[in-house]
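I'm stuck. Please check this protein.
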Amino acid sequence: MANILIIDDESGILNLMTKLCRSQGHDTTSVLTGREGIEALDRLKPDCMIVDLVLGDMNGIEIIEYSQQKHPNTQVIMVTGHGSIETAVEAMRLGAFDYLTKPFELADLQRTVELALQQKGKPKGSDAKSTPEFDLAMEPSRLIGKSPKMEEIFGIIDKIADNASPVLLEGEFGSGKQMVARSIHNKSKRNQNPFKVLQCSALPEELLEMELFGLPSSRSETIFNRAMGGTVLLEEVHMLPLRLQSQLESYLEEIDARRLTGTLPGYMDVRFIASSAKSLEECVANGTFREDLYYKISVIPIQVPALRARKEDISLLVDYFLGRHADRTGKSRFDVDKYAIRLLEQYSWPGNVGELQNAIERACAFAEKNTIRPVDLPPKVAQKVEITDDDEQVTHQLPIGTKLA
């Protein structure tokens, strides 16, 4: 039996979710407002929290951020409407275990809660929080792909690895920007030195300033110093406050000037890479990002493709994640039947590679006889689609939950 907290301002849905969780033997508390939810979270320290994205008095994202800071052992499931998928993916990036899109089947809620509770206590994230909702043992240790878009990126990495110019990586959340940055570092002559990551949205402005520029009396505490001789990745650079953007532009200008004159001190000798889930060019046009900093950090721009734009790579990624799962658990390697693979290849993956990782982890937990079938996939993946049987040349319509031999 687990302790579960549910926060939703729609009383009908709240009652249904509460009854379901209680029917499974869980000690369940339900509240209608975000404020009550925060109070209950502090009081109960639940094993799992189910929270709606849109509440009357506050945003569900705020509650997730609070939960991750104060109660990191609480598994979080986000409930969202169809029009809020991007925000739900952002919630997963912040640490939510998974999200459900309204309307959803109660059976799917039950399975999601079960899996979240199974995963409770396992490592959830790392320093940069690039994919905090996924087990780091599943995170790729190298770029994986055979699609033309990935081949192009491989070629760019080979060409620029030892170039000192700043790199700007743009692409959706979960598309693999950090892994591209790591690959650049690993291919370079700096690969024996540190690779450090700082997420601009993860810290208050004052702490972010200290991480970047240190105390007035010393720069010894900055991320640049800790990465001496290596690479610094500044994630979500579009979230950097304008005041700090000005300071960063000046700092990078100083690095360039000292490098040209041969007076660059060791603590400033780093390769600078920035990443953003938004178009910085649009941010400049909107007045939220400095134009001079944009030109400074975008000397080498790389567009990291969304997973839906490189579907040829999905089977490779699935194979990789299954291998890592087998290594990590010590169990036999799972297979995936052809119908499940086709469903995986047809889904749009708004959460990109990160969401695919989560789906495979989930499928492994529910698969029978070491074979993943459509029924084992998240319902948002296993939508009704047309699939042609190659042997019989017949088109089948597969609804959610269909189990095929």
